[in-house]
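Progress narrative, Year 2. Work on Regulatory protein, luxR family from Streptosporangium subroseum advanced from sequence curation to structure prediction during this period.
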Amino acid sequence: MRGRRREWSAVLKLLRTVAGVSQNVMLVEGEPGIGKSLLLLEAASVASARGVAVATGRADQLGRLMPLGPLLSALEESPAPITVARHAFPFPEGSGLLLWLAEQVQTSLEERTGSGPLLVTLDDLQWADPATLMALRTLPSRLASRPVAWLLARRTASGHDDADRLFDLLEEEGAVRILLQPLDDDAVAEMSADALGVPAGEELAVLAAQAGGNPLLLAELLRGLHEEDHVRVEGGVARPTGAALPRRVHTAVRRRLDELDTKTRHLLEATAVLGRSFSPTYAAELLGETPVALLPALREALAAGVLVATSDELEFRHELLWRSVVEKVPVPVRQALHHQIERNPPTRPAPVYRHTDDATAEALVALSLLAWDEGRLSRGLDLAREAVELPAGGCHPRPRTVLARMLTDLWLLDEAEAMTASAEAEEGEGQSLWAAEISVLRARLALAAGRPGSAIEQAEAGLAAASVLDAPALVSSAVSVLGTASLRAGDLPGAARYLERDPARSARGVPPCTRLHSELMAGRISEALGGAAAAMGSLGLIYDALPRHTGALTGDPAAAAWLVRVAMATGDPRRADAVVDAAEGIAWRNPSLSGPSVAACHARGLRDHDPDALSRAAAEHTDPWARASAAEDLGVLFSADGGSRDLAVDSLNDALTCYGTAEATRDAARVRGRLRALGERRRHWVRTDHPVSGWASLTGTEHAVCDLVAQGLTNRQTAEQMFISEHTVAFHLRQVFRKLNIRSRVELARRSGEESVHPTG
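Result:
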């Protein structure tokens, strides 16, 4: 259990609450060999020692033929086994038997919990049969009133399958989700010392690092070295005595590869000779295949976690795994492959895929979105661009729209505009949906360019079409634009109404990245209405998803800084640190892009109260609104220092100018309020000739007061949204009543509604 202190603390917390009446569910994920089974085994051992009954089960590939097999085996292992008379059921075929078996499982669990708390552990659920997954979808909630806890484990490398969807749904209902990461260097060193009795020397430490922090590979390496007497102790440290890998490592790798199709194993053995990383195009040439013919095998190897995608090639996940594959290729075969490579050497860089198959374009788009969600933005752009270069065919989503969204998020607006125009010129399947997607793209572009009026017009058109076509992800994107534009304009009730139309927070089948973007928008509106504490109800999902899902940080260059600001305002430095670490991780993974580095600098400057970092962000943000946000943060920091008033005023003036460029009237009003607190006043009106009475006689400020009061806000709430005093609101309201010859807020609301339908003049 080295290196698992945080995860083990969560397990102990689950065991402490198992006797309570609640839905206690913990989800454990990780690559093969990362330690999931050991965690479940240790949890079962501790639970038994504490007097908690334990039911353990495991799914396997062949067990899919047995409906509810893992659950049934778990209960039959207990001292009071379930009596399932399978042959006694009168109708052994069809769904009736499955329903009956599920009821028997639930009854057995209820009986077991009648005599005390119960821990149910189920491993390898990536291989579970559909009936087991369906039962696990409902049993935790049905038994929430019983003292039962669930510890469920699956491989993350298995792809987005039914087990993954089950975990997503259980997490939405409150389950704790743990992703077991590779061990860090300290944990690897501790494991080495545990196995060998002395610390590892430099050479052995380098060899141990080839396990990539995978506990199973590392344990097999250390045990094998010890068993085969390939370790000697000199100077109080252990040193390896041979170059070949121990048999234990080869056995562990063979078991892992035996789960794969024969063609996939053949591909891995051949490409391993090329080196730890390779170009799929050249691999196809080496094997005399086309890239599309290799696609199923490559997908399987990627899904199994044997291969991973790098910036321009595919790579064996662990060096030990790669070495084992190479060493087990017979020497004559290895020599023949080397001779072939010498005759036909690879040319680099080579594209990942280059052919005209629609499935390849769709796969590239899917991989680009996955890379984007993980913060590998350069990789996502490269894959999306490569998909664009292929004939578009009929794949969906269109590569051009995906690439245009990415370019917009990075504020590469000229290229994004050109790509949107190119996408608009395409003939796509489902023209109505296609038109809606183009409208939302143009809305995002207009908002990024500081044209909120045009953004609202395009987003409204896209929203109307997407709502009719039942496209929740597209509806959510349109609502996000409308909510942001309303928020910047100071129309908080309008923003809240748009938020109510966002299906991403409740609809099923919405991608996690879309859901997180939706929660970010909800948090911003909640913060504007009720402060930082009110925003945390929506933002918890975003903070907790880091660093696994970072998509919420990339759609807005100031998102990371805003999340840090909210976390600090609510006294939660741990979450502020998590955001800064995630933002810096994105910047580190994308050195060729300037935007992520500036966004990370902004977030770090806020957390550390660093004026130099905030100054850099205020100077280098390409998005005017983000630049204004950084300048405002810098002004606030200087304002807190009594001797930096002039610097504070200069920074706030810069923020005011940038907010004006982005037509962010609410934000500009907030900055004017900060300047007033420093004794500085800024005009924010345009002198025009007005009639002496009637709707047309109202000034811009009076119109703003009318809009908020007509929507039901009190004078205090209106003052808070306009960043002026309550007395000033009362003064403007008296002027409005006099000019309109009315006496109540009810009359004002009626007049405002009439004007919105039939504007004067």
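Residues 77-94, 347-357, 392-397 have pLDDT under 50 and may be disordered. The chain has six domains: 5-179, 185-243, 250-343, 356-429, 434-510, 695-757.
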